[in-house]
Amino acid sequence: MRLRLLVLFAALLAIPALAADISGTWQFSVDIDGGGHGDPTFVLKQAGTKITGTFKNPQGETPVTGTLTGNAVKLERKGERDGQAFTATYAGKVDAPDKMSGTVAFSPDGPTGKWTATRQK
Question: Does the pTM of the predicted model rise above 0.85?
Fold first, then answer.
């Protein structure tokens, strides 16, 4: 019985080591439904499940926050366009150590779309 508990405990300790780490520079490709495309760069830093970083595109740079739970990633950034504040939420999954994909939604009442991302070496 004691041996079983030790094996179970060791297995539980190993689980965090298997979790993805998405720290680094990511090149995104974003296609907005109904037209529109962008190639922003995200520079991300992970501490446990918490993500911080920056979003960069030709219009400038904004902070990014988010989470990573298992392989499910959620990133948010706030911005302004034509005097209107918005939040862009990128939700998706880590497909491989250097690949992610998902959907993006701009709120309030903004467009949606799909994205893929590749970690830069």
Answer: no
